[in-house]
Every structure is written in C-alpha cells, then in structure tokens.
Amino acid sequence: VVKMKLPSKRSQNESYRLANGGKSKGGTGIKGEYFNMKCKEFPYGCKENYDSSYELQQMKYLSSLRGCKHWTKKHGIRIPYFDLKTRKMRMYVPDILVEYVGGKKELQEIKGFVKDKLNYETKCSVARAYCHSRNIKFVVLFGDDLFRQRSVSGF
Predict the structure, then answer these.
(1) 61 phi/psi in degrees, rounded to 5
(2) CB 126 within 8 A of CB 93
(3) Which of 8-12, 25-29, 105-109, 121-125 has the lowest mean pLDDT?
(4) Nearest 10 degrees: Cα torsion 153, 51, 140, 65
(5) Of 110, 106, 76, whose CA–CA distance to 93 is shortest?
(6) What does the pLDDT look like over 68-109, one tens digit per residue?
(7) Confidence category of residue 28, pLDDT binned at 50, 70, 90
(8) Tell me, what's the pLDDT at 145?
(9) Is 23 within 8 Å of 17 (Cβ atoms)?
(10) What is the Cα–Cα distance from 103 to 93, expressed in whole angstroms?
(11) 105-111 and 137-142 beta bridge pairing
(12) Kind of pairing, strands 46-50 and 96-100?
C-alpha cells in the first residue's frame, strides 16, 4: 500500500493562483486585477480589483462599450444602512460606477446569486434612495443579465 500525502488547502490555492496568472480563488469565483483604460483620474489607465468572475466580465464589457466614457470600482461611495440581523449600522459599497458619453451615471451591483434576501433588499433600497437623490441610475446585474447584454451587443 502506497500512502500519498494530499495537498493542503493552502497549496491547492497557491497552485490555482500560479496556474491562473496571479488570480486567487474567491468565494463565488476568482479575484484579481484588471487594467482599466477608461479610468477618469488617470488618462493612461489604472488597475481595478475584481472580486468575482462576474465583475471581471462586466469590466471587460464596459471597456469595450463605445458609449461608456469612464467606469471605476474606486468610486468612494459608501451608503450607510441598518442591518436588521445584527441590529447595527453598516456600510454598503456598490460595485461599479459608470459614466456614459452623454453624461448619465449608473451605479451597478454585480451579483452571481443572492445569499441573504433580506440584506440584499435592504442594500438595494438604500442604494436606490441614494442614487435617486443624485440623479444616478441604480441597476443590479445578475449572471444571466451579463450574458444577455453580450449576446445583444455581440461581445
């Protein structure tokens, strides 16, 4: 009988990271950096961190979209909300702020799936109120939405 030592969780993650160009595996997908050429603050581009494969997919789409002037995850928007489960004030940070060529702005939340429906609904409610008062459109994009927008645009 030959005993084999199974790789540790750490070495499995390290192997994944090395095999995928420095990206580490996250909870619902991959995490990593994407070079944003439509960064408002830096005309020659900047690095943006993504927390899932869905966010990476949306970043690539926005970068290729002609009508998109700027987009960023580094928008600094933090919206306070009351977490009903923990009964504490928390901060909600939406995923991406987009500015289109015509001047319209859109705040995007990218979701693979909803783990906690009550928490999700609370965050969406405060985000809609925040955006409405600032003339910004708030949208939630799920994985299926991301796929549909690509098939319509041909991306």
Answers:
(1) -65, -50
(2) no
(3) 8-12
(4) -30
(5) 76
(6) 999 999 999 999 999 988 999 999 999 999 999 999 999 999
(7) low
(8) 80
(9) yes
(10) 22
(11) parallel
(12) unpaired
Reduce the secondary structure of the chain to three states and give it as a string.
CCCCCCCCHHHHHHHHHHHCCCCEECCCCEEEEEEECCCCCCCCCEEEEECCHHHHHHHHHHHHCCCEEEEECCCCCCEEEEECCCCEEEEECCCEEEEECCCCEEEEEEECCCCCHHHHHHHHHHHHHHHHCCCCEEEEEEHHHHHHHHHHHCC
pLDDT of residue 1: 47
> Does pTM top 0.85 for this prediction?
no
| 33 touches 24 (CB < 8 A) | no
Q: How far is CA 64 from CA 19, 58, 71, 97, 131, in A?
A: 26, 10, 11, 16, 25
Assigned token pair, 22: 């420095």
